[in-house]
Write a structure and sequence with these properties.
The complex is a heterodimer of chains A (about 425) and B (about 90).
Chain A lengths: L11 E9 L6 H9 L5 E3 L1 H5 L6 E3 L12 H4 L4 H17 L10 E6 L5 H11 L10 H5 L3 H10 L5 E4 L5 H14 L5 E9 L3 H9 L28 E10 H6 L6 E10 L12 H13 L9 E3 L6 H14 L6 E3 L2 H4 L6 H15 L1 E2 L15 E2 L5 E2 L5 E7 L3 E8 L3
Chain B lengths: L7 H16 L12 H5 L3 H15 L5 H6 L3 H15 L1
Helix pairs in contact in B: 1-3, 1-5
Classes of the chains: A alpha/beta (about 425), B mainly alpha (about 90).
Chain lengths: ~425, ~90
């Protein structure tokens, strides 16, 4: 008999996790950095040279990329695809899917907000005057579905291979959509996650022109401070996280390590402004409530909230109002890991989903890095200073993207 | 504009370097008898990449037909030597 949830759908287990993000290149390392609330922002040489008003970001620490990608493949792919492939390789190798599993029934579902724009930026800057001289691999390197396709190619996964673009919610969308395909029985396994690597001068310049980025150049490590009174914008990050999803029973029966369950997912759209969230938070609150209901839970069952918390005034204020609405004035403890990781755009939802699950499984909510005093303290139960012990239980992870995209996941640790 | 004359060795070195760069190995690994398709599974895009590098390094136009015609690295060097001679 197959384990079904309260809506009689197949339950979705996470059996592999790969992380390549500023907080670490393994889940354990990233979890430790987040618990220590240690910011990863630092000055980036090529941004200083470009004379940008915001010359700092959160980068993935160096790791042995050659252990994952051959020199030949490295020449054909960009940083986002590299980080996605490395994270996927870790997740797939951890899951150790059975050799007799039909590859036709394994899908790849990836989210990216910026996609291959950094590669096209480089092609345009290097070869704009003589496009005929651009590298032959420019198009396959810069197409936004390159990460998903490269993962499918590497493992011969021939199920649906899709790329979702809901800006900063892309990674959350991808994991949710993959879970949906497992739930309905469409797929027997899926690699899902999010990625972006957009710390380039043109893209950073674009965000800086909107005044969306913090300009705390004298102290980059203090710049990302979600919900703090002194916040002045987000800090750009790069990175990827990937999970392997399988039907719960199948995973348990084959003795796979089960990290937890993707138990709830919902999405909607503010349909209000191209970048600003709706300040009354009603649509985002509805998204949270639907995700919780989708998990067969009530708001009071949620043990902690992983906020989108970008460290921009508009996001944080609207999100706090939405959380207050969702939990009807009795919110569980709330954290925001972007104080540590910066904002990974399409990578953020995936990195945060796996970190939220790790924190929920350990029963400790990490403090928001740098945040001390919040004007939203009356709306949310912000964890600051030190980790907060909580019972092991479901976590709500929020992602909100430019374009009004709201996406929420509920992740439940194994019993 | 006069074209510098290249020896066969110089052309061979240029070809080996282009091939090695694309398939991620060292020029010394690429002998005359190496077949790009049979030995390295070079795909059509990689072949175009090698062609683009040679066009740039040797300042010569290479037809797609010539790229696909060459069965081994040695054969490719022969063809290039011939094209360069025709041009000069």
């Amino acid at each position: 008999m197959t384990a079904r949830d309260t809506a009689r759908r197949i339950r979705v287990a996470i059996t592999g996790i790969g992380v390549k993000c500023p907080a670490g290149t393994t889940l354990a390392e990233a979890h430790g950095t987040v618990l220590a609330a240690k910011s990863t922002a630092s000055v980036v040489g090529h941004l200083v040279e470009a004379d940008l008003p915001v010359p700092f970001a959160c980068l993935v620490p160096p790791f042995d990329e050659e252990a994952y990608v051959t020199r030949r493949e490295a020449r054909q792919i960009d940083r986002a695809t590299t980080l996605a492939l490395c994270a996927a390789a870790d997740a797939v190798s951890e899951a150790a899917l059975p050799a007799d599993l039909s590859r036709d029934r394994v899908g790849v579902q990836i989210g990216t907000g910026i996609g291959g724009l950094p590669s096209m930026e480089k092609a345009a800057l290097d070869h704009g005057d003589r496009p005929i001289d651009m590298p032959v691999h420019t198009v396959p390197r810069s197409m936004s579905n390159a990460p998903a396709s490269r993962i499918a190619m590497r493992y011969g996964f021939r199920g649906p291979c899709s790329t979702y673009s809901t800006a900063c919610a892309s990674g959350t969308t991808a994991i949710g959509e993959a879970a949906r395909r497992i739930r309905t029985g469409e797929l027997d396994a899926a690699v899902a996650g999010g990625v972006d690597a957009a710390v380039t001068k043109v893209i950073m310049g674009g965000f800086a022109r909107m005044r969306a980025l913090s300009t705390r150049t004298d102290a980059p490590h203090l710049a990302s401070r979600p919900f703090d009174a002194e916040r002045d914008g987000f800090v750009m990050g790069e990175g990827a996280a990937m999970v392997v999803l399988e039907p719960w029973d199948v995973a348990v029966a084959r003795g796979a390590r089960v990290y937890g369950e993707v138990s709830g997912f919902a999405e909607n759209c503010d349909a209000f402004h191209i970048v600003a969230p709706h300040e009354d938070g009603t649509v985002a609150a509805a998204c949270m409530r639907r995700a919780i209901a989708d998990a067969g839970l009530r708001p009071a069952d949620i043990v902690h909230v992983n906020a989108h918390g970008t460290s921009t005034l508009l996001n944080d204020r609207a999100e706090a109002i939405a959380v207050d609405r969702c939990f009807a004035g009795s919110p569980p403890p709330l954290t925001a890991v972007k104080g540590v990781t910066g904002h990974l755009i399409g990578g953020s939802g995936a990195v945060e989903a796996v970190l939220a699950l790790a924190c929920a499984s350990a029963g400790a909510v990490p403090p928001v890095a740098n945040t001390t005093k919040s004007p939203e303290a009356h709306l949310v139960d912000l964890v600051t200073g030190a980790p907060r012990p909580v019972p092991v239980g479901p976590v709500l992870s929020n992602s909100f993207g430019f374009g009004g995209h709201n996406a929420c996941l509920v992740l439940t640790p194994p019993n | 504009m006069s074209t510098p004359t290249r020896t066969r060795d110089e052309i061979a070195h240029t070809v080996r370097t282009a091939v090695a760069d694309v398939i991620g190995t060292e020029p010394e690994e690429i002998g005359d008898d190496v077949s790009l398709v049979a030995d390295y599974g070079v795909d059509s895009l990689e072949l175009m990449d090698i062609g683009a590098r040679l066009e740039k390094a040797l300042d010569v136009h290479i037809e797609v037909r010539d790229l696909t015609l060459a069965e081994t690295v040695g054969h490719a060097v022969d063809l290039l030597e011939e094209r360069l001679r025709e041009r000069s």
